[in-house]
Amino acid sequence: MNNANTTELPFIAHLIELRNRLLHIVLCIAFLALPLSMYANDIYALMAQPLMAHLPQNSSMIATNVTSPFMTPFKLSLVTAVFLSVPFILYQFWGFLAPALYKDERKAIFPLLLASTVLFYCGVAFAYFVVAPLALAFFTSAAPTGVAVMTDIEAYLDFVLTLFFAFGICFEVPIFTIVAVWSGFTTVESLIEKRPYVIVGAFIIGMFLTPPDVISQTLLALPMWLLFEVGLFFARLKMRPKKTNEIIIPTNAKKRRLKPKK
Known about the structure:
The structure is a single chain. This protein is mostly helical. Helix content is 71%, strand content 0%. It starts with a helix and ends in a 25-residue tail after the last helix.
């Protein structure tokens, strides 16, 4: 019975810690979502600017469902709360993994946390300022003659949120690469050999994570490949150097026989 308790208690303790950290994340999102819901319409107007800039004159967005005028901005405010909670979510994630790391590995948690947050926001900003205007300009200009472009507000929100989170997550490629090398799961040399497969995989991921258009897929795949190269560069810099004070004994050295003293 004692052996069983000693093996089960650590597992239960990990589950309790995981539950507490998830609860903290939920409370943080709820704390931010409540005040943001008061400005839900203003937030949606800001989100709709890339589309409104390319709509024809005397054209506007529409709401096809009865509850869309209320639920869609409210949904955006909730997603915005999650977006703003990303640093806290990453902090809870790294905090949960910290006890399983060595002391020197724990020192790298804060730089990785900071880099993960910055890369996520860079990916979302890249999607909002670069990808979304290009894709929406193409879609609105490709409408057949006689077709009025009036996008549903709920469909547009799903479109831009898919772009934002796809680019935000895929911009974490350098972090994934560095962690994979540091943990010993793979090596820099192995990843360099698999570079062609990584490039093809980036385009496949872009095909599944972005809306079905070539512009969004290409604009996601190319940064993923470049960020993969950045991750390789920093992973190579952070490789542990070999100790120089080690004594190397050649295997083919002949053993000297010591003559006994008289």
